[in-house]
Amino acid sequence: MAPISIKTVLISESVDPRCKAILEENGIRVTEKQNMTKDELIAKIKDYDGLVVRSATKVTADVISAANNLKIIGRAGTGVDNVDVPAATKKGIIVMNTPSGNTISAAELTCALLMSLSRNVPQAAMSMKQGKWDRKKFMGAELYGKVLGIVGLGRIGKEVASRMQSFGMKTIGYDPITPPEVSATWGVEQMSLEQLWPQCDYITVHTPLLPSTVGLLNDESFAKCKKGVKVVNCARGGIIDEEALLRALESGQCGGAGLDVFVEEPPKNHSLVEHPNVISCPHLGASTKEAQARCGEDIALQIVDMVKGKNLVGAAFCFGFCPHLP
Ligand SMILES: NC(=O)c1ccc[n+]([C@@H]2O[C@H](COP(=O)([O-])OP(=O)(O)OC[C@H]3O[C@@H](n4cnc5c(N)ncnc54)[C@H](O)[C@@H]3O)[C@@H](O)[C@H]2O)c1
Ligand SMILES: O=C(O)[C@H](O)COP(=O)(O)O
Protein backbone atom coordinates (compact mmCIF):
# COMPACT_ATOMS: atom_id res chain seq x y z
CA MET A 1 0.00 0.00 0.00
CA ALA A 2 1.30 3.48 -0.82
CA PRO A 3 2.33 5.54 2.25
CA ILE A 4 -0.15 8.23 3.32
CA SER A 5 1.18 11.57 4.53
CA ILE A 6 -0.19 12.32 8.00
CA LYS A 7 1.48 15.24 9.77
CA THR A 8 -1.27 16.44 12.09
CA VAL A 9 -3.83 14.51 14.14
CA LEU A 10 -6.71 15.82 16.24
CA ILE A 11 -7.80 13.62 19.17
CA SER A 12 -11.29 14.79 20.06
CA GLU A 13 -12.04 12.54 23.05
CA SER A 14 -10.43 11.03 26.12
CA VAL A 15 -8.08 8.48 24.54
CA ASP A 16 -5.25 6.72 26.40
CA PRO A 17 -2.08 8.90 26.47
CA ARG A 18 -0.13 6.14 24.65
CA CYS A 19 -1.99 7.16 21.49
CA LYS A 20 -0.56 10.69 21.49
CA ALA A 21 2.88 9.43 22.57
CA ILE A 22 3.13 6.87 19.73
CA LEU A 23 1.97 9.37 17.12
CA GLU A 24 4.46 11.99 18.35
CA GLU A 25 7.30 9.44 18.48
CA ASN A 26 6.60 8.99 14.77
CA GLY A 27 6.83 12.69 13.94
CA ILE A 28 3.09 13.45 13.93
CA ARG A 29 1.87 16.66 15.62
CA VAL A 30 -1.05 15.92 17.92
CA THR A 31 -3.72 18.25 19.30
CA GLU A 32 -6.06 17.00 22.02
CA LYS A 33 -9.32 18.91 22.33
CA GLN A 34 -12.36 17.41 24.01
CA ASN A 35 -16.03 18.43 24.24
CA MET A 36 -16.02 20.48 21.03
CA THR A 37 -19.36 21.58 19.65
CA LYS A 38 -20.20 20.48 16.14
CA ASP A 39 -19.42 24.02 14.86
CA GLU A 40 -16.05 24.03 16.63
CA LEU A 41 -15.19 20.67 15.06
CA ILE A 42 -16.26 21.89 11.63
CA ALA A 43 -14.08 25.00 12.03
CA LYS A 44 -11.02 23.03 13.21
CA ILE A 45 -11.12 19.85 11.14
CA LYS A 46 -9.60 21.39 8.00
CA ASP A 47 -6.27 21.80 9.84
CA TYR A 48 -5.81 18.04 10.35
CA ASP A 49 -4.78 15.01 8.29
CA GLY A 50 -6.09 12.59 10.89
CA LEU A 51 -8.88 12.49 13.47
CA VAL A 52 -9.06 10.08 16.44
CA VAL A 53 -12.45 9.64 18.12
CA ARG A 54 -14.38 7.36 20.47
CA SER A 55 -18.20 7.17 20.39
CA ALA A 56 -19.18 10.70 21.44
CA THR A 57 -17.78 12.67 18.47
CA LYS A 58 -20.35 12.70 15.70
CA VAL A 59 -18.40 12.70 12.45
CA THR A 60 -21.33 13.65 10.27
CA ALA A 61 -21.44 14.42 6.54
CA ASP A 62 -21.05 18.16 7.20
CA VAL A 63 -17.96 17.58 9.37
CA ILE A 64 -16.50 15.41 6.59
CA SER A 65 -17.41 17.97 3.97
CA ALA A 66 -15.34 20.59 5.87
CA ALA A 67 -12.43 18.16 6.32
CA ASN A 68 -10.41 19.19 3.29
CA ASN A 69 -7.13 17.62 4.40
CA LEU A 70 -8.45 14.64 6.34
CA LYS A 71 -7.12 11.25 5.24
CA ILE A 72 -7.90 9.02 8.22
CA ILE A 73 -10.60 8.76 10.87
CA GLY A 74 -9.40 6.43 13.60
CA ARG A 75 -12.02 5.05 15.97
CA ALA A 76 -10.31 4.01 19.22
CA GLY A 77 -12.94 1.35 19.87
CA THR A 78 -15.42 -0.84 18.03
CA GLY A 79 -18.64 0.82 16.78
CA VAL A 80 -18.31 3.26 13.88
CA ASP A 81 -21.98 4.24 13.88
CA ASN A 82 -20.94 7.77 14.98
CA VAL A 83 -19.03 8.19 11.71
CA ASP A 84 -20.72 8.73 8.36
CA VAL A 85 -18.66 6.01 6.68
CA PRO A 86 -20.25 6.37 3.20
CA ALA A 87 -19.55 10.15 3.21
CA ALA A 88 -15.94 9.54 4.31
CA THR A 89 -15.43 6.80 1.72
CA LYS A 90 -16.81 9.05 -1.01
CA LYS A 91 -14.19 11.63 -0.06
CA GLY A 92 -11.40 9.02 -0.02
CA ILE A 93 -11.03 9.17 3.79
CA ILE A 94 -10.11 5.88 5.45
CA VAL A 95 -12.19 4.93 8.48
CA MET A 96 -10.67 2.34 10.77
CA ASN A 97 -11.37 0.98 14.22
CA THR A 98 -9.76 -1.26 16.85
CA PRO A 99 -12.41 -3.97 16.97
CA SER A 100 -10.94 -6.32 19.55
CA GLY A 101 -9.36 -3.87 22.02
CA ASN A 102 -12.43 -3.58 24.25
CA THR A 103 -14.08 -6.99 23.69
CA ILE A 104 -13.23 -8.45 27.10
CA SER A 105 -14.25 -5.29 28.96
CA ALA A 106 -17.63 -5.11 27.20
CA ALA A 107 -18.20 -8.83 27.82
CA GLU A 108 -17.34 -8.48 31.50
CA LEU A 109 -19.74 -5.54 31.95
CA THR A 110 -22.48 -7.57 30.25
CA CYS A 111 -21.89 -10.40 32.73
CA ALA A 112 -21.88 -7.91 35.62
CA LEU A 113 -25.30 -6.62 34.49
CA LEU A 114 -26.66 -10.18 34.14
CA MET A 115 -25.49 -11.00 37.65
CA SER A 116 -26.79 -7.71 39.05
CA LEU A 117 -30.20 -8.35 37.46
CA SER A 118 -30.41 -11.81 39.01
CA ARG A 119 -29.61 -10.61 42.54
CA ASN A 120 -30.71 -6.92 42.54
CA VAL A 121 -27.23 -5.88 43.64
CA PRO A 122 -27.44 -2.16 42.73
CA GLN A 123 -30.91 -1.77 44.27
CA ALA A 124 -29.84 -3.53 47.48
CA ALA A 125 -26.65 -1.45 47.70
CA MET A 126 -28.68 1.74 47.26
CA SER A 127 -31.10 0.70 50.01
CA MET A 128 -28.17 0.01 52.39
CA LYS A 129 -26.87 3.53 51.69
CA GLN A 130 -30.31 4.77 52.73
CA GLY A 131 -29.81 3.03 56.10
CA LYS A 132 -32.19 0.13 55.38
CA TRP A 133 -31.72 -3.60 56.05
CA ASP A 134 -34.25 -5.16 53.69
CA ARG A 135 -33.65 -8.89 53.28
CA LYS A 136 -37.09 -9.70 51.80
CA LYS A 137 -37.43 -7.10 49.06
CA PHE A 138 -34.33 -8.23 47.21
CA MET A 139 -34.99 -11.96 46.92
CA GLY A 140 -33.21 -13.06 43.73
CA ALA A 141 -32.96 -16.13 41.51
CA GLU A 142 -29.96 -18.26 40.56
CA LEU A 143 -28.46 -18.01 37.11
CA TYR A 144 -27.62 -21.71 37.35
CA GLY A 145 -29.79 -23.73 34.98
CA LYS A 146 -31.34 -20.66 33.35
CA VAL A 147 -31.39 -20.02 29.60
CA LEU A 148 -29.42 -17.09 28.16
CA GLY A 149 -30.26 -15.99 24.61
CA ILE A 150 -27.37 -14.23 22.87
CA VAL A 151 -28.35 -12.23 19.81
CA GLY A 152 -25.16 -11.47 17.86
CA LEU A 153 -22.45 -14.09 18.15
CA GLY A 154 -19.38 -12.06 17.26
CA ARG A 155 -16.44 -11.17 19.49
CA ILE A 156 -18.39 -10.01 22.54
CA GLY A 157 -21.27 -12.50 22.23
CA LYS A 158 -18.77 -15.37 22.22
CA GLU A 159 -16.95 -14.10 25.34
CA VAL A 160 -20.24 -13.58 27.19
CA ALA A 161 -21.28 -17.16 26.34
CA SER A 162 -18.19 -18.78 27.84
CA ARG A 163 -18.34 -16.67 31.00
CA MET A 164 -22.04 -17.32 31.64
CA GLN A 165 -21.65 -21.05 30.90
CA SER A 166 -19.30 -21.15 33.87
CA PHE A 167 -22.32 -20.07 35.97
CA GLY A 168 -24.22 -23.08 34.66
CA MET A 169 -26.39 -21.15 32.19
CA LYS A 170 -27.58 -22.82 29.00
CA THR A 171 -26.56 -20.58 26.08
CA ILE A 172 -28.59 -20.36 22.90
CA GLY A 173 -28.20 -17.73 20.19
CA TYR A 174 -28.82 -16.26 16.79
CA ASP A 175 -26.46 -14.71 14.24
CA PRO A 176 -27.03 -14.47 10.48
CA ILE A 177 -23.30 -14.75 9.71
CA THR A 178 -21.57 -16.87 12.37
CA PRO A 179 -22.12 -20.48 11.25
CA PRO A 180 -24.06 -22.64 13.75
CA GLU A 181 -21.33 -25.31 13.62
CA VAL A 182 -18.81 -22.66 14.76
CA SER A 183 -20.89 -21.33 17.66
CA ALA A 184 -21.65 -24.95 18.64
CA THR A 185 -17.92 -25.36 19.39
CA TRP A 186 -18.30 -22.62 22.01
CA GLY A 187 -21.39 -24.23 23.48
CA VAL A 188 -23.99 -21.99 21.84
CA GLU A 189 -26.87 -23.67 20.05
CA GLN A 190 -28.16 -21.47 17.24
CA MET A 191 -31.78 -21.17 16.21
CA SER A 192 -34.16 -18.66 14.64
CA LEU A 193 -35.29 -15.69 16.72
CA GLU A 194 -38.81 -17.10 16.64
CA GLN A 195 -37.51 -20.22 18.39
CA LEU A 196 -35.21 -18.28 20.70
CA TRP A 197 -37.58 -15.70 22.24
CA PRO A 198 -39.88 -18.09 24.16
CA GLN A 199 -37.02 -20.14 25.63
CA CYS A 200 -34.98 -17.40 27.31
CA ASP A 201 -34.86 -16.36 30.94
CA TYR A 202 -32.29 -13.70 29.95
CA ILE A 203 -31.53 -12.09 26.59
CA THR A 204 -28.41 -10.09 25.74
CA VAL A 205 -27.82 -8.30 22.42
CA HIS A 206 -24.38 -7.97 20.81
CA THR A 207 -24.95 -6.77 17.26
CA PRO A 208 -23.83 -3.58 15.52
CA LEU A 209 -26.46 -0.86 15.08
CA LEU A 210 -27.76 -1.48 11.56
CA PRO A 211 -31.14 -0.90 9.91
CA SER A 212 -31.74 -4.64 10.42
CA THR A 213 -30.96 -4.50 14.16
CA VAL A 214 -32.84 -1.33 15.14
CA GLY A 215 -35.76 -2.46 17.31
CA LEU A 216 -34.72 -6.12 17.14
CA LEU A 217 -36.40 -6.50 20.49
CA ASN A 218 -39.74 -4.69 20.11
CA ASP A 219 -43.38 -5.05 21.26
CA GLU A 220 -43.87 -8.06 19.03
CA SER A 221 -40.75 -9.91 20.16
CA PHE A 222 -41.33 -9.07 23.85
CA ALA A 223 -44.79 -10.61 23.49
CA LYS A 224 -43.16 -13.87 22.31
CA CYS A 225 -40.81 -13.99 25.32
CA LYS A 226 -41.34 -15.73 28.66
CA LYS A 227 -43.14 -13.47 31.12
CA GLY A 228 -40.52 -11.77 33.29
CA VAL A 229 -37.63 -12.18 30.83
CA LYS A 230 -34.62 -10.02 31.76
CA VAL A 231 -32.67 -8.21 29.05
CA VAL A 232 -29.26 -6.59 28.69
CA ASN A 233 -28.04 -4.10 26.11
CA CYS A 234 -24.31 -3.40 26.15
CA ALA A 235 -24.20 -2.97 22.36
CA ARG A 236 -26.02 0.08 20.99
CA GLY A 237 -29.05 2.07 22.08
CA GLY A 238 -32.12 1.26 20.00
CA ILE A 239 -31.35 -2.44 19.34
CA ILE A 240 -33.87 -2.96 22.15
CA ASP A 241 -36.66 -0.50 21.33
CA GLU A 242 -36.70 1.81 24.35
CA GLU A 243 -40.43 2.55 24.32
CA ALA A 244 -41.32 -1.13 23.89
CA LEU A 245 -38.96 -1.97 26.76
CA LEU A 246 -40.66 0.54 29.04
CA ARG A 247 -44.07 -0.89 28.16
CA ALA A 248 -42.80 -4.44 28.81
CA LEU A 249 -41.31 -3.39 32.17
CA GLU A 250 -44.54 -1.72 33.18
CA SER A 251 -46.66 -4.75 32.28
CA GLY A 252 -44.22 -7.19 33.93
CA GLN A 253 -43.58 -8.95 30.61
CA CYS A 254 -39.98 -7.83 31.12
CA GLY A 255 -38.71 -8.46 34.65
CA GLY A 256 -35.64 -6.22 34.46
CA ALA A 257 -33.17 -4.57 32.13
CA GLY A 258 -29.45 -3.85 32.30
CA LEU A 259 -28.61 -0.96 30.00
CA ASP A 260 -25.20 0.47 29.17
CA VAL A 261 -26.24 2.27 25.99
CA PHE A 262 -29.10 4.54 24.92
CA VAL A 263 -30.56 5.95 21.72
CA GLU A 264 -29.62 9.39 22.97
CA GLU A 265 -26.53 9.68 25.19
CA PRO A 266 -26.91 11.01 27.79
CA PRO A 267 -30.62 10.09 27.69
CA LYS A 268 -32.98 13.07 27.93
CA ASN A 269 -35.97 10.92 28.74
CA HIS A 270 -35.31 9.43 32.18
CA SER A 271 -38.32 7.09 32.40
CA LEU A 272 -36.25 4.00 31.62
CA VAL A 273 -33.28 4.86 33.83
CA GLU A 274 -35.59 5.68 36.74
CA HIS A 275 -37.61 2.47 36.45
CA PRO A 276 -37.02 0.38 39.62
CA ASN A 277 -36.22 -2.74 37.59
CA VAL A 278 -33.65 -1.02 35.39
CA ILE A 279 -29.94 -1.05 36.13
CA SER A 280 -28.02 1.37 34.00
CA CYS A 281 -24.52 2.63 33.29
CA PRO A 282 -23.34 5.66 31.30
CA HIS A 283 -21.84 3.69 28.37
CA LEU A 284 -19.06 2.11 30.44
CA GLY A 285 -18.51 -1.11 28.44
CA ALA A 286 -15.08 -0.03 27.19
CA SER A 287 -14.18 2.08 30.19
CA THR A 288 -11.40 0.03 31.74
CA LYS A 289 -7.71 0.86 31.93
CA GLU A 290 -6.88 -2.24 29.91
CA ALA A 291 -9.37 -1.65 27.08
CA GLN A 292 -8.44 2.01 26.77
CA ALA A 293 -4.72 1.20 26.70
CA ARG A 294 -5.26 -1.38 23.92
CA CYS A 295 -7.57 0.82 21.84
CA GLY A 296 -5.39 3.95 22.19
CA GLU A 297 -2.22 2.08 21.32
CA ASP A 298 -3.78 0.06 18.49
CA ILE A 299 -5.28 3.07 16.72
CA ALA A 300 -1.99 4.99 16.91
CA LEU A 301 -0.02 2.02 15.56
CA GLN A 302 -2.54 1.56 12.75
CA ILE A 303 -2.18 5.22 11.76
CA VAL A 304 1.62 4.89 11.85
CA ASP A 305 1.37 1.77 9.67
CA MET A 306 -0.62 3.80 7.14
CA VAL A 307 2.06 6.51 7.15
CA LYS A 308 4.68 3.82 6.53
CA GLY A 309 2.62 2.22 3.77
CA LYS A 310 2.23 -1.08 5.58
CA ASN A 311 -0.61 -3.35 4.55
CA LEU A 312 -3.23 -3.29 7.28
CA VAL A 313 -5.34 -6.24 6.20
CA GLY A 314 -5.78 -8.44 9.25
CA ALA A 315 -4.70 -5.72 11.64
CA ALA A 316 -7.86 -3.62 11.56
CA PHE A 317 -11.10 -3.00 9.78
CA CYS A 318 -10.43 -0.26 7.24
CA PHE A 319 -13.95 0.81 6.44
CA GLY A 320 -12.74 3.24 3.77
CA PHE A 321 -11.35 0.32 1.78
CA CYS A 322 -14.16 -2.09 2.57
CA PRO A 323 -17.33 -0.01 2.23
CA HIS A 324 -19.43 -3.20 2.22
CA LEU A 325 -18.60 -3.82 5.88
CA PRO A 326 -21.29 -2.82 8.38
N1 LIG B 1 -20.97 -0.78 25.59
C1 LIG B 1 -19.76 -0.59 25.08
O1 LIG B 1 -18.98 0.22 25.55
C2 LIG B 1 -19.32 -1.41 23.90
C3 LIG B 1 -17.98 -1.83 23.80
C4 LIG B 1 -17.59 -2.55 22.68
C5 LIG B 1 -18.51 -2.83 21.66
N2 LIG B 1 -19.78 -2.38 21.80
C6 LIG B 1 -20.79 -2.72 20.78
O2 LIG B 1 -21.10 -4.10 20.91
C7 LIG B 1 -21.59 -4.59 19.67
C8 LIG B 1 -20.91 -5.90 19.34
O3 LIG B 1 -19.52 -5.73 19.20
P1 LIG B 1 -18.58 -6.94 18.71
O4 LIG B 1 -17.18 -6.47 18.84
O5 LIG B 1 -19.00 -8.20 19.31
O6 LIG B 1 -18.97 -6.94 17.16
P2 LIG B 1 -18.76 -8.14 16.12
O7 LIG B 1 -18.76 -7.51 14.77
O8 LIG B 1 -17.60 -8.99 16.51
O9 LIG B 1 -20.08 -9.02 16.31
C9 LIG B 1 -21.34 -8.57 15.92
C10 LIG B 1 -22.13 -9.79 15.48
O10 LIG B 1 -23.46 -9.36 15.23
C11 LIG B 1 -23.94 -10.16 14.15
N3 LIG B 1 -25.14 -9.58 13.57
C12 LIG B 1 -25.24 -8.64 12.59
N4 LIG B 1 -26.56 -8.43 12.31
C13 LIG B 1 -27.26 -9.25 13.13
C14 LIG B 1 -28.66 -9.49 13.30
N5 LIG B 1 -29.58 -8.86 12.57
N6 LIG B 1 -29.03 -10.40 14.23
C15 LIG B 1 -28.10 -11.05 14.98
N7 LIG B 1 -26.78 -10.87 14.84
C16 LIG B 1 -26.36 -9.98 13.94
C17 LIG B 1 -22.75 -10.22 13.20
O11 LIG B 1 -22.89 -11.29 12.29
C18 LIG B 1 -21.61 -10.40 14.18
O12 LIG B 1 -21.30 -11.77 14.37
C19 LIG B 1 -21.37 -3.45 18.67
O13 LIG B 1 -22.57 -2.73 18.55
C20 LIG B 1 -20.34 -2.57 19.35
O14 LIG B 1 -20.37 -1.25 18.90
C21 LIG B 1 -20.21 -1.70 22.89
O1 LIG C 1 -18.16 0.55 20.28
C1 LIG C 1 -17.38 0.74 21.21
O2 LIG C 1 -16.14 0.58 21.11
C2 LIG C 1 -17.94 1.07 22.55
O3 LIG C 1 -19.26 1.49 22.48
C3 LIG C 1 -17.11 1.96 23.39
O4 LIG C 1 -17.29 3.32 23.10
P1 LIG C 1 -16.34 4.38 23.81
O5 LIG C 1 -14.99 4.22 23.18
O6 LIG C 1 -16.95 5.70 23.55
O7 LIG C 1 -16.29 4.04 25.27
From TrEMBL:
It is an enzyme of class 1 (oxidoreductase). Pfam families: 2-Hacid_dh, 2-Hacid_dh_C. The keyword Acetylation applies. It catalyses: (2R)-3-phosphoglycerate + NAD(+) = 3-phosphooxypyruvate + NADH + H(+). InterPro entries: D-isomer_2_OHA_DH_cat_dom, D-isomer_DH_CS1, D-isomer_DH_NAD-bd, NAD(P)-bd_dom_sf. CDD domains: PGDH_4. Keywords: Acetylation, NAD, Oxidoreductase, Phosphoprotein. Its EC number is 1.1.1.95. Residues 112-285 form the D-isomer specific 2-hydroxyacid dehydrogenase NAD-binding domain. GO terms for molecular function: NAD binding; phosphoglycerate dehydrogenase activity. Residues 9-312 form the D-isomer specific 2-hydroxyacid dehydrogenase catalytic domain. Pathway: Amino-acid biosynthesis; L-serine biosynthesis; L-serine from 3-phospho-D-glycerate: step 1/3. It comes from the Eukaryota. Homotetramer. Belongs to the D-isomer specific 2-hydroxyacid dehydrogenase family. PANTHER family: D-3-PHOSPHOGLYCERATE DEHYDROGENASE, FORMATE DEHYDROGENASE 1. This is phosphoglycerate dehydrogenase. The gene is PHGDH.
